């Protein structure tokens, strides 16, 4: 394959989230999170796993920064745990101390911190007051954002308000696969609105606290391909794609919610009050794309025998059962550029595979290396087409607690033995190390 050199200054990073790696869920005044409660409920997580100890990053952060430095990372995206910072509505200064130390350590290592304020782990006390179904949560989130930026804003330039609000709305309140585990609540679109409102309120709080910050949001965007050319499959795929993509992008750029999708979803929009859409659509400095796959959508009412020739059936899938479709990342980058975003980062991209542990301790994961290579080539093509892509973050730096899959799926560049907490750089990590050093692909 042809060599691909990325632009000078392209930012190479890796990403994690608080609940997936920190552990220490009862340390130093951290309150219970919605994911603590969800994971502790039998049947919700594979093998009854929880986010403690996860990767014990709360105690091993210095070792972990050393590994980031060894890889040559230019940036590290992590999330702050809301229940570690706020307890009973009060700021927990000891919890903030951890992120103080982490940010200082990253900067000393020459690694740019990208802080995500919310990666799904809000306090259980907030959930008991209605969680994201309650409009008040949006204002509580803005207060939390203000507390974090007050402590870290003198050193952290890049901020993301939310990670994948679609997941919270739909997997948390429609399918029940994620916390708080509600199935067909009928409130997932209300939740999505409150998440977007909280984004706008947080942007306002961040900008009021300090000038010069770079503020964005990380969205998981996917093409949705119909199972077949049957009109009902095509319509189902179009609706699901709009609920995932346009539903979040349109209000962020001031277009409001897509009217045709509002009508198809029969959303009453009673939670949208005067001024909400203006608050949501404040200008952003960048947008983050989390990309993993193209998903195939079928209308369940269509008998298989009635389906014409099927559309997309990739031969290769990851350990999650997700198809390997790098072209979709290029499509989503083009979509973002079409919305007028002038600075884009791939804030997550990666894959779970079953790694091969050799007798000498080497961990081989050529499937992951190939997956990342394919997607970076799609990123390079997007840049060549004029798309303003300025950085790329692998998901994930570590094997970690993979939500409802517990510890049964591994996404990491770095293998974690969850019994001993030993870290080992995988073959893909060594490959990524070379990509960073050469600013491109051979």
Give the structure's gist in a few sentences:
This protein is α/β, with parallel strands linked by helices. It starts with a strand and ends with a strand.
Describe the structure in your own words.
The chain is of the alpha/beta class and about 450 residues long. It has a single domain (about 5-440), classed as Glycosidases (TIM Barrel), CATH 3.20.20.80. The protein has helices at about 20, 35-40, 55-70, 80-85, 95-110, 125-130, 135-150, 165-175, 190-210, 230-245, 245-250, 260-265, 275-280, 325-340, 365-385, 425-440; strands spanning about 5, 10-15, 75-80, 85, 90, 110-120, 160-165, 215-220, 225, 285-290, 295, 345-350, 355, 365, 390-395, 415, 425, 440. The strands form six sheets. It has an eight-stranded parallel beta barrel with strand order 2-3-6-7-8-10-12-15, surrounded by five helices. Strands 1-18 form a two-stranded antiparallel sheet. Strand 13 and strand 14 (about 365) form a beta hairpin. The longest helix has 22 residues, at about 190-210. The chain starts with a strand and ends with a strand. The mean pLDDT is about 95.
